[in-house]
User: Which sequence fits this backbone?
């Protein structure tokens, strides 16, 4: 795999600083039942990295003593971590909103019986990957059979009440482009998703989130192999919108890797760019408090243009809709 960090470090991306901490985003490990082409984590079935029980305990202690109001769980497939349910239950007991970034097909895997019901009982928000509403496109990006499995999982979630306005159970879908292009406007694409999924499969969801593909890990390496990396970076830089800087997720989010180390965002985590704090060489969730992050400088590089290009992109979807 081609390393992209050396191609990104020299940057003129604007300097930005942290605001009030609101979200703790935790990567519970790189194990996954899928190996998606756009995956910036390079997750897959052969990955063995899984967050330990001790690190999960440290996260629970941090949540209890911080202003964090949202716990955002990601991976790989976060549900594969043995401590997934314990962490969810602890956060909900603290009245913290929990987001599960679910690839949908994990809910059909052996050993995951009842996970969907557990999520519903704990009112966990589900942010589910579905990079297109056309079967062939999804299977090309995520593997044969993925689309049919995703539809089956969505039907199960709908049956539990997810995606229905009266239930309070939120189900958002995530779109990623298949290649080195920006996502189309989020509102128009959401309308297309909703119409197609309802009319063809009877599927309901709350919101579509469009995410820009980051030029790192598996996707970035593919661009380098194809000789398209420089062109993609030029697209991101040329469509940068200064107004998007106010809404980038790193201002209010703290990213934790599977070992408990801290980063400004999930993308910096994957590039090995640790959060910079005075007095901490490599900050760990077990050795810091939330007050230390106030107005701290954010580590930036050229990949940050992926969050400010066009309509903008964050874990919550487009910034300018």
Assistant:
């Amino acid at each position: 795999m081609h390393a992209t960090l050396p191609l990104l470090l020299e940057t003129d991306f604007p300097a930005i600083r942290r605001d009030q901490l609101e979200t703790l985003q935790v990567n519970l490990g790189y194990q996954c039942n899928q190996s998606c082409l756009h995956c910036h984590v390079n997750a897959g079935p052969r990955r063995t990295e899984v967050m330990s029980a001790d690190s999960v305990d440290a996260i629970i202690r941090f949540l209890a003593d911080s202003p964090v109001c949202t716990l955002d769980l990601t991976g790989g497939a976060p549900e594969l971590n043995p401590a997934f349910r314990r962490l969810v239950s602890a956060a909900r007991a603290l009245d913290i909103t929990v987001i599960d970034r679910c690839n949908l097909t994990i809910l059909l895997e052996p050993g995951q019986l009842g996970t969907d019901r557990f999520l519903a009982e704990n009112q966990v928000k589900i942010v589910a990957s579905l990079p297109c509403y056309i079967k062939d496109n999804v299977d090309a990006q995520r593997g044969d059979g993925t689309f049919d499995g995703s539809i089956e999982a969505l039907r199960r979630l709908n049956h539990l009440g997810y995606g229905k306005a009266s239930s309070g159970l939120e189900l958002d879908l995530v779109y990623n482009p298949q290649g080195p292009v920006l996502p189309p406007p989020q509102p128009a694409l959401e309308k297309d998703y909703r119409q197609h999924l309802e009319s063809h499969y009877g599927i309901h969801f709350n919101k579509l989130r469009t995410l820009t593909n980051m030029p790192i890990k598996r996707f970035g390496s593919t661009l380098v192999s194809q000789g398209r990396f420089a062109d993609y970076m030029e697209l991101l830089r040329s469509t940068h919108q200064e107004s998007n800087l106010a809404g980038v997720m790193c201002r209010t989010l703290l990213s934790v890797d599977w070992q408990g180390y801290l980063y400004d965002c999930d993308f910096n985590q994957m590039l090995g760019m640790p959060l910079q704090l005075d007095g901490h060489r490599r900050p760990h969730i077990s050795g810091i408090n939330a007050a230390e992050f106030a107005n701290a400088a954010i580590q930036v590089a050229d990949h940050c243009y992926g969050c400010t290009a066009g309509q903008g992109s964050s874990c919550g979807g487009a910034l300018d809709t």
